[in-house]
Amino acid sequence: MTASVEADLDHDALIRAVPMFADLSDDEIEELWRSAERVKATTGEVIIAEGTPGDRLYIVLSGALEVTKREGGRDITLATRRPGEVLGEMSLLEQAPRTASVRASEASELLAIGPEAFRLLLERRPGAATTLLRTVVGRLRSTEASLVQADKLASLGTLAAGLAHELNNPAAAIQRSSELLGEAFEAWRQRTLVLNALDLTPEERAALVDLEAGIVACGRMRDSDAAIRKEESRLITVLEGLGVAEAWEVAPAMAAYGWTVERIAPLQAGFAEVRLPVVLRWLGSGLAAQQLMEEIQRASKAISDIVHAVKSYAYLDRAPVQDVDLRQSLEDTLMILNHKLKHGIEVVRAFEDDLPRVTAYAGELNQVWTNLIDNAIQAMEGKGRLELAARRLSNEVEIRIADSGPGIPPEVAGRVFEPFFTTKAQGIGTGLGLHIAHNIVVNRHGGRLDFTSRPGRTEFRIVLPLRLSPSVGTGETSNGRG
User: Fold this and answer.
1) Which residue in 362, 368, 373 sits closest to 339, CA to CA?
2) CATH number belonging to domain 2-126
3) How far apart are CA 403 and CA 385, in angstroms?
4) Are 404 and 457 in contact (CB under 8 A)?
5) What is the pLDDT of residue 339?
6) CA 189 distance to own-chain centroid
């Protein structure tokens, strides 16, 4: 970036093109021009870097500049500024670090105005402050809308990736079990033919009917995997002793359905010694096929539960205002975020019995739960204790979401609901999650949102009225509009 002392441009017209400077006198414009610095930038050159001190503002004299913000490892374009527009006024006013970066998208020239010259201008021309305020408010709304949209898209991508992972496991189980089921049924069919060819006594045929009925009626044992594996090992030894070929194939399914060495003893008394091995191999094959069918049923139900949760979470095909079951709403959010929870977070629920429904913007409430729970997960770095509680308070309902993370530092606790404020590292988060949650709870629903925090426990408390009041619901929404 190089300073320029050229005076080939009509600086009076250039400065007056900016609304906040339009009413300056000729002397004031001349003084502003003399106190400012002419700056040139080549294509791609960074004029303002996010996070650097806000020590001056810029008037675009020529060219075009792109305003971007770092979010989740990528740059989000917020706006393009052209001749006659101002840059960097918010950071200069707040004496705060830059919240965005500015890069020349083509060769450009700017006028840089320092803090002293700007202060004198506002003192002499109070009307300029009003114009500046309108500019700042417009910028804030535009920036928030852009970041909310980008944040929604990023969140959607994250949720989609997590759901794809959640769906992949049961889908893979269905595919694997389906392939094996064909082989298992064929093996059972072949062994049924062999069994039917035997010269069984009437008593043996009656016992066989009971065994076959037991295959369909039995359910898998709920014993621990270690206990089942121990019994499986014992069964292999006994089956081999009875002459059962490939006992290691027969024993796992039998153990999974509660067959023990002790249960085999009555079969030894009920079937001839020469026919018992055939009966046991047939029984093992039938149980193996049953086991695969149950695995397919469980995996199918898991997919169905996920799809149901997604549909309920998004409130597809429903009006925006619903009588919301808060327990189900929170459970749907947990299902959506399960891919982040299941690797080390204990979820503890304390939902009051007969919790009343609330009339609410259902999809927006889910956005509140998602923001708060996702923040808690990030605070705990994926490992810890997440507590969810809900109870009735007269004509209101109270929801509490607590985590075992490090807590919110006292020096920043008063700012957590401000737009663009974040305690996360640069490029991680937009600083809008809690701001959006606050708007949805307070402005959209007439509720309350507050929190307490100390090392080891941060708890957000949401209080919602049972019914929406006609006077609320028209405030600032989650898409940044008023």
Assistant:
1) 373
2) 2.60.120.10
3) 6
4) yes
5) 80
6) 48
